[in-house]
Amino acid sequence: MTDNQENINEIQSTFALDNLKSDRIMLYLIALHWFISSAVTSIQYGTFLFGFLSGGIIFLLTLLAYRRYRGQKEFDIIIGIALMLFSTVFIQQHLGRIEMHFHIFVAIAFLTIYKTHHGLVAAVVTTTLHHFLFNYLQMHEITLFGNPIYIFNYGCGYDIVLLHTVFVLFEASVIFYFINNANKHYIKLILAEQKYKDITENLEHTVEKRTAELKQLNSVFNEAQQITHLGNWEWNIEDNSLNWSDEIYRIFGLEPRSTLPTYDKFISFVHPDDRETINTNIDKALKEHTPYSVIHRIITHDNVLKYVQERGHAKYDQNHTPIQMIGTVQDITSEVKAQEELKRSEDKFKVLTENSYTGIFVHKNKILYTNPQFEKMTGYSSQELKRMDLLDIFMLEENKEELASILKRRRKGEAFTTEYENIQMRCKDGSIKFVNAYSMTIEYEGEFVALSNIFDVTDTKKTSEQLQALSQIAEQTDDIIKMTDPEGILTYVNDAFVAHSGYMRHEIIGKRSNFMKSGKHDKKFYENLWSTITQGHPFKDLFINRKKDGSLYYEQETITPIVNEMNQITAYVSTGKDISERIEMEKRLALLASTDTLTGIYNRRKFEEIFATELARTKRHSNPLALIMLDIDHFKAINDTYGHDIGDHVIKSVVDVIQFNLRSTDVFARWGGEEFIILAPETTEEQVKVLGEKLRHAIEEYDFGDAGKVTASFGLSVNTKDASSAQMIKQADDAMYKAKQNGRNMVVFNA
User: Fold this and answer.
1) Residue 88's pLDDT band (boundaries 50, 70, 90)?
2) What gap in Å lies between CA 696 and CA 686, rounded to an integer?
3) pLDDT computed for residue 699 by the predictor
4) Which of 13, 439, 473, 608 is the most buried (most CB within 10 A)?
5) 157 phi and psi, to 5 degrees?
C-alpha cells in the first residue's frame, strides 16, 4: 500500500471517529433537551404527560433532522425542519407558547445549507439573540396604544432562563468544536482524496495500458497456438474441473468455449483403442511424480480421425497429494501422415532397389547405401562398402576433380544426370569389371545425395568385342538385331532397331528386353518363349511390340541362344524383320474380302460365315434366332430416273438408317444389289416383327433428297429345330417377295 493511501485511510478513520463522537454528544444533548423541555412544560401546565409528549415530538423531529444532516440529504433535512416548525406552531396555536429549542433547528439548517463553520456561528448568534429577547420579553411588559402586549403567554423565572441560556451556549460550543474539527479533517480528506483520485487515474491508465498489452499478448499467444496446432490445458484434480485453451477446442472440432470441458468429455474424443493407454500414462505420472508424453488418436466432433501428442505433469501439495495437472495437446496429424508416406516411399524404394538386377548405391563422399546386387557385383558386404570411398572402388583418379565438382552441385540440390561408360571397377577378389554408371540427384534422409545405377558390362564388352567383326554387317542390314545377356538384359541393338523402334541405344541398353511389350501376347506366349530358348532352342514367332511413340509394329523374329564351350548360354541374339506393312496389307485385303465396298458393311460371303457360326451356337443353347431380308422398292426406276450416283446415295442412306436402328448384337450385310439381310440373335417371332416394322417406318420417314420418298419391303423368318441357314434365308426371301406382290412397303412374316 502506498503512503498516500495510508494517509487517506488514517484521515478517514479519524473523521469517522469524530463523527462517532459527534453523534454520541448530539444524542446526549438532544436527550437532555427532551428532558428539560418535558420538565419545564410539565411545571408550566401541571401535567407530566403533556410535557412528555411535547418534548418527545421535539426529540424525534430533532433527531430525524440531525440524522438527515449526517447523511447529507438536503431535501430530507429541509422537510424535517419544516415538520419541526409545523409542530411548534401547532403547539403554540393550541397551547399558547413557542418551544425554546428553535436554535437547534437554525443551527442544523445553516449547517445543511452552507456546510461550514460560518453557518454554525450564525446559528449561535441567532440563538443568543433569540434567548436574550426571550429573557427580556419574559420579564418586561410592552404596551401598544395603551394596552399591554404579551409576547409569550407564560413566564419563567430568571433561574430557568439563565440555566437555559448557559446550556444553549454550552451546547453550541460543543457542537462548534466537533463540527469544526470534523471540517478540518474533511478538508484534509478532500485534498487527500483529490490526490488519491489523481493517483487512481494514473493507476487506472497504467492498468488499462497493461491490460491492452496483455490482451495483445494473449491474442498473439492464441494465434501462435493456432499456427502450431498446440493447445494447453489445466486440470484441477481437487474439484475435477478442466480448462482448455481455444486451440484444444479447435483440435477436437469444436467452437472455442462452446462446451464445458471435463475429463470425461476429453476421454470421449480419444480413440477407443487408445483410452487405456491414456489412463495408464496419467496414472503412472501421478503415482511416480514424473511427466508423461504420449501419442494417440482422437475422433473429432465432426468424426475426423486425428493424431495428437499429449504432454503433462502434475503439481502436489505438502502431503505429496496431486492437486493439479497441466499440459499440452498438439495436432500432429500432418506429421504422422508425412511419416507414414515417407515410410511407404522408403519401403517402395527398398523393394525396388533390393529386387533390381542392376547395382544401386547412394553416396556422398562415402557410400551410404548399397543394394544386394551391387554387393554381389563387388564382392564386398554392405558394411565394408560404407567404409569405402568411391575412388577405392572405381578407377576414376583422372576424374577426381570432376567428381568433387559434381558432388558439390548435388549436395546443393541441383538436379542433373551423369553417365559413365566402361568404368573399371575393383572387386574384392582383385578382379576388374567393366561397368556403366548412371547417377542422379535425390533427397535421402533429409539431405541431397547421388543415386547411382551400375550395370556390369564386362561380359557384354567381351561379347561386343567378339561381335565387332560382325557389327559392320549388322549395321548395314535392315533386319532388326538385338542382343541380350542370359537374364534378358539388352546389351546391343543395331541401327535398324533404332530406326524401327524410335529408341536410342542409351535409352534401352541395360534394360530388360520385355520393356517393349505391347500387351497383345498372353502369359502362355512368353512362357513358351523362355521355355524354348533356355533349353537352347531357337524361338520363331510374330511379335507385336510397342515403339517409343506408343504405336505398334509387327516383327517376324527369331531368338537364338548363344552358348560357350561348356554349352552354357551366354547371350541371346534376336534377328527380325518389321513386317508391319505386310500385316496391314493383309488386314486391308481381309477387310475387302469381308465387307461391301460401297457401304462398308459385311458382304454376302462374310455374312454366310457369321450366320453359320451363330446358327450352330443357337441350336446348341436352344436360343431364338431371327432373319430379316429387305429390298428397296422401285430401285431400278430411281437409277433410271436420277442416275447411278443418286442410286448409290439411296443405298448408303438406307444402310445408315438401318444401322442407326439396330442393336449392337445384330449382324447387317448387303446381300446383293439393293437387297440387304439382317441376323438378329436372341430374337423371337414377336420381337422380329416389331423390329421389322420399326425399320420399315424409319426408311419411309427418311428424306432421301433428290430421290424423294423411298420405301422397302421386308421378309421375316425365325429358326426352327431342324432349319438350316439356307432354309431360313429362303423363307425370309419368299416373305419379302410376297410383300412386294402385296403392294410393297410392308413387313411379311413367313410362318
Assistant:
1) very low
2) 16
3) 94
4) 439
5) -75, 160
